[in-house]
Amino acid sequence: RRQATEYSTSSSEEEFESQLSVTHKAKRAIRKRRKLEKETKQLIKQEELKRLHKAQAVQRQLEELEERQRALEIFGVKLERELRGEADSGTKDENQMLHEWFELVMEKNKLMRYESELLIIAQELELEDHQSRLEQTLREKMAMDGKSK
Questions:
Q1: How far apart are CA 126 and CA 71, in angstroms?
Q2: CA dist list (Å): 61 to 32, 51, 66, 125, 131
Q3: Model confidence at 21, in pLDDT bands (50, 70, 90)?
Q4: Where does this protein have coiled-coil stretches (predicted)?
């Protein structure tokens, strides 16, 4: 009897310890998952901030580019009038004015290419932001219970 009671006691203790062990493992897994979720959220926020800063820089560059294009346009109109003889060209000869006009056209084309590149970068940032939001939505839906899915 004594052995039987000792055996049943040790058996129940082992079951209790195994239940504690399972419970402890489950709690540890939950903590680990929460920590991972927190780190993931922090990474997402950092990526969003990087995109925001990059988008602000692109916007600033586009505004500066627009100002430079306006200044070139004003100078180009003045130069064209001088070439046509509508305005007083002063001491400039026609070859010098044509050279300035071609440089102006080249500068304007360069600015237009740069503007296209900036617009592509801006569009890329928008797509990255959209992808990030979709991934977040997917994570939220995957975290739901099976019944509510």
A1: 30
A2: 43, 15, 9, 15, 25
A3: confident
A4: 26-82
How does 80-109 read in b/e, with b if 16+ C-beta sit within 10 Å?
eebbeeeeebeeeeeeeeeebbeebeeeee
Residue extents of the structural domains in the chain: 49-146
Residues 135 and 127: their CA atoms lie apart, in Å, by 12
Q: 139 vs 73, which has greater pLDDT?
A: 73
Q: Per the structure block, which two tokens stand in for 10?
A: 């040790």
Report how far residue 105's alpha carbon sits from residue 41's, in angstroms, rounded to the nearest whole number: 49
Q: How far apart are CA 118 and CA 55, in angstroms?
A: 10
Question: Rounded CA gap, 23 and 26, in Å?
Answer: 5
The pLDDT value recorded for residue 20 is 63
In this prediction the pTM is: 0.67
Average of pLDDT values for 104-116? 96
Tokens 């950092």, located at residue: 46
Amino acid at 100: E
